[in-house]
Amino acid sequence: MRFEKAVPLTEIARLIGARIVGNSGGAATGINEIHKVGEGDLVFVDHPKYYQKCINSAATYIIINQETTFPPHKSLLLVDEPFEAYQTIVSHYRPFTPLQKNISDTATIGEGSIVMPGAVIGHHVQIGKGARIFPNAVIMDHCVIGDNVIIQSGTVIGSDAFYYNKKTNRDIHYKKMLSGGRVVIENDVEIGANCTIDRGVSGDTVIGAGTKMDNLVHIGHDTVVGKNCLFAAQVGVAGATTIEDEVILWGQVGVSKTLTIGKGAEVYAQSGVPASLAGGKKYFGSPAEDALVKKKELVWMKRLPVLWEKVFGNK
Amino acid sequence: MRFEKAVPLTEIARLIGARIVGNSGGAATGINEIHKVGEGDLVFVDHPKYYQKCINSAATYIIINQETTFPPHKSLLLVDEPFEAYQTIVSHYRPFTPLQKNISDTATIGEGSIVMPGAVIGHHVQIGKGARIFPNAVIMDHCVIGDNVIIQSGTVIGSDAFYYNKKTNRDIHYKKMLSGGRVVIENDVEIGANCTIDRGVSGDTVIGAGTKMDNLVHIGHDTVVGKNCLFAAQVGVAGATTIEDEVILWGQVGVSKTLTIGKGAEVYAQSGVPASLAGGKKYFGSPAEDALVKKKELVWMKRLPVLWEKVFGNK
Amino acid sequence: MRFEKAVPLTEIARLIGARIVGNSGGAATGINEIHKVGEGDLVFVDHPKYYQKCINSAATYIIINQETTFPPHKSLLLVDEPFEAYQTIVSHYRPFTPLQKNISDTATIGEGSIVMPGAVIGHHVQIGKGARIFPNAVIMDHCVIGDNVIIQSGTVIGSDAFYYNKKTNRDIHYKKMLSGGRVVIENDVEIGANCTIDRGVSGDTVIGAGTKMDNLVHIGHDTVVGKNCLFAAQVGVAGATTIEDEVILWGQVGVSKTLTIGKGAEVYAQSGVPASLAGGKKYFGSPAEDALVKKKELVWMKRLPVLWEKVFGNK
Lengths: 315, 315, 315
What we know:
- The structure is a homotrimer.
- By secondary structure, the first copy, chain A, is of the alpha/beta class.
- Chain A has two domains: 2-93, 3-Layer(aba) Sandwich (Udp-n-acetylmuramoylalanyl-d-glutamate--2,6- Diaminopimelate Ligase, Chain: A, domain 1), CATH 3.40.1390; 108-294, Hexapeptide repeat proteins (UDP N-Acetylglucosamine Acyltransferase, domain 1).
- The first copy, chain A, contains five helices and 34 strands.
- Chain A has helices spanning 9-16, 48-55, 82-93, 291-302, 304-312, and strands spanning 2-8, 19-22, 27-31, 41-45, 61-64, 75-78, 108-109, 114-115, 120-121, 126-127, 132-133, 138-139, 144-145, 150-151, 156-159, 164-167, 173-176, 182-185, 190-191, 196-198, 204-207, 212-213, 218-219, 224-225, 230-231, 236-237, 242-243, 248-249, 254-255, 260-261, 266-267, 272-273, 282-284, 289-290.
- In chain A, the strands form five sheets. In chain A, strands 8-11-14-19-22-25-28-31-33-34 form a ten-stranded mixed β-sheet, covered by helices on one side.
């Protein structure tokens, strides 16, 4: 999440009840997860296993639950519960404000863009020129829609991330992490009917220019889809994944979280992608493999009875 | 379906044109399918194969198309077409009343709950405290939503069951069975965008407290989901299934009807569950098996060419 | 796409800047793709590989980018870019007209039909008698809904086809092909919640009488579904496919494009159908095969360790 303008570190510390260790004179530009942070950002960590990774990330300010060594140009913000501090910051700088009508007064809609009946355009949404938002589509707060984007009926842009902090004291239960991020849809993207694209938890979910998606597609939080990709109907992509340019995912493909699919890769229908795939190749199966290897495997399967008969003399 | 107050058996008999065999002085508390009935309920049966099961169920009153023996504290309601009698009873006591506006006057919405633009709240819906209903979500008649429940945009709660009586006289065709049941969503449940949760045919579809669902999830009629479950995007669960507490279903998992998944089971992405699964274990594949067994199977597949070469001397 | 009345060939030629070769006195009844054309129709082709197929199709008028031989009763319309000519014709005779309110004044709604709050009924939509359109469903322009049809909440009928012309000059990118076709839903069809049925590109997408679909089902452009079919939740069918009468597709089945599934076939849950299937049989797997063959294959898999041990003496 970017702040609208840089926030003094002392203001952040007061808000979350933190003790600053190191230079307290700076100002934070935003707050993000470890894999999305940049210089000037806050990051948060509560487990010793990830301390060094956070302290050595691009982030300048580390919200942490234990004092530890850190580079001289950075600062620590010591709190008991870093995840709670994150929630407090998001709630404060991006407060939940219920919509009162179909199109918020703070939304901006570019020249020649059309919003059809029943569509909902949230607070601070920006829509470019020549876009078409079909009936009953929903674009929630802070999302950005480029020029000539087409969003078919019933699609939801900017639903909350499916992102929970698992608590195991007594029973297992799940605490919702607030979604401070946005969805950014670049120019010339077309999205089918009844799709869902979740906002980033702390960064942005991005759909690259020229990409086309069919109906009932799901894109998770903080996922970045490249330019001129093609996703067929009922594809699902989990959170924080990177899909490079010109990737084709055929119908009902599922893609797991935090992986990368390389440029120009093509994944055949119903495949499941549990790990990163190199670009420029074709894949099939669940788990997905090189399509040629997988097709041979299907042929091998058919030879099993022959093999059995040779070895055992009968079936 | 529960009646609002107990209905005298003679009133039911008059409505459906039944002849009462046995004690006619009682009153019925509701009507349900065989696997959901309780004492005081009506049940209905038209096939000799199921006569004894229905007569010996917890139900007190049996709508049936043939006279047969039954326990002394029960009664039969004799009709030619028991399924038609069910339809008549549901139509009469829970008549279809088209909504005239977005929020029915008979709905109750608790303190601090927010209903955003375009959302539709049906007749007799009850929403607890502190709930958030996002834009264009639909909650149909008689459904119950607990405290602090979050329902993202476009989700439909209480759509009719996908439940038909197959007729094979001349052609095959399907007759819709009315959905007299409800959806009951307990406290602290969160449901993603563009999900669908069907109402029960004669009982309730239940989502247990603390359960979280991602986008585009489908839950069939009369299915009961336990507490603190986690369902990732595009999961589908068929009708009348039981999912116990703390079950995790990853993306695009499909679960068949009338089975049970035990407490704490975890089913990996894209798996298909055709039969009941014991709790506390991890599963993978379509059909789903113990994940370790299934993973070994994938390794065995890779050894097939080696085996072939050993046996036949070449590939 | 049917024209409302036959259009003189000279008017078409003027509109798209074509030179007529052959008889210029005729009138065109519609424009369609090669596999959907009839006598009196326009067809369009830009690749020599398909020239003869188009010229010998049922179409009478061929929009083409090179002069070639043709039967005496037909005519050519010579243009540089036949696909652009198609777009120009669709834009002209079926112009995009944004909806201004939930129910267009040009829609007709039959006696006893109910349209609930938030539903959107587009221009020139025709709804028969006794239909029920649930809240927030969307029926876009020119679609036809039969008698007694039920459409549950959030379903979108007549979204644009997922159909693009791939351009590979410099980068890969995709140009949207306009959808001039309709969705035609015959009598007694019932469609679940949050489904999507795309309109035809140049022909019609058809759902046959008596067919029932569960929630979150996707049907692609120009697909024709027969009578009394049953599709369970999350089924996806790609474009221009033919599904004959009484076919059953269980949950999460995926069906590829331009194939045929024969009458009465049944496809088990999560199967993937990449090629045509004969009627009257049961299928399973991805890719789908005869269910009995596939089940045997699963048994053979389990025998692999035994085979290995016999051949190699150990595992």
